[in-house]
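User: My collaborator sent over this chain with a note saying "see what the structure looks like." That's all I know about it. Can you take a look?
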Amino acid sequence: MKTKFALMTAVMAFSYTFAQEIPLSAELNTYSKKVDSIVVSEKTKMNVELDEVDKNYQENKITSDEKQKQSTEIASRYEKIINEKVNTQQNDLEIATKEIVKNAVLGKNDTIQNHGKNEVQLGFNGIKMKVNGEKKEPKDYLHSWDFNVSFVGANLTSKDEPFKFYSKASDVRTTVYNSYSIALRYEDQLGGFRSPVFYRIGLGMRSDNFRPKYNQVFSQEEKTLVVKDFTKGNLRDTRLSSTYIYIPADLRFVLNPKYIEHNGVKYLDNKQPQLNIIAGVYAGVRAGSVIYNKYSTEYTKRVVERERVMYGMNDIIFGAKLGIGYRGFNLFVQKDLTPTFNDNAQLKKKYGLQIGIEIANVNF
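Assistant: Without extra context I'll predict from the sequence alone. Here is the result:
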């Protein structure tokens, strides 16, 4: 579901770029607020009924067994109500995404099947899409807009061991893929028409997901973020999800430049397959963080809890990035130079370290 949501988000953001509708961050915030509103509203109603059961028990109107039975029935009923309402929001999002895909990829102006101006390629180099790709002169290929989607493995390290991947001493699990990022970037050439150096600057969103080690969860206690054993039942899934709005700034160095001459001027041929080294920096602002727990008990098979993270996390991050790429396939490592978690978090490792693959590129 997480991968599906990432790809849905990428298509939505691409479509909004052309339609000039509301920004991606606003759309995600709206969806998140709807889900939070549903959960808070229904849990408030449930607590009213549970309080009434407790009152009846204290007044000796019902026995202990009756109290347990009624409480379980109430919790199960509201769990079903919450799931149905959240699924409705999810279905609306999926329907909208299908319509966006239809309009953006198979619209009436599309010429994909004829290999005209617009092209979609799917292969070992990931997904590449070109919009209005037919340009007149070589210099037109030396600047462009780029939209990309990356799948990321996010880890935590300490300050004195900044590049120790998958440390066993970390409070979170070793995971190959647990995060993603999307970004819209502008690229242009530095120097003359033969320069192999390009700069990129953009705006995007990054989502990090950390899972504590088995049968442990993140918890907020006395204004402190901790990791502790889970005792409410059989833990099915847990994570701390953080979303950042971030600005990446990169330099791209072409290692195998090829040239073309046009009207007596020699240009770097940016249409040719290229081997690249990417180096850059980024800054991010935390848009929100949520602790998610899903578990079962002897009374109910599925209980879902969501809690906003109020303590233990820094709101601003800075970092550096280094990568290598060929055609549309890019591998990169990026390191948060500021800690993800602050002094109010009782964690052994607090600095973010990501290994990523760019799996989709849209050039226009």
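A starting point for your reply to your collaborator: The two ends are 29 Å apart (CA to CA).
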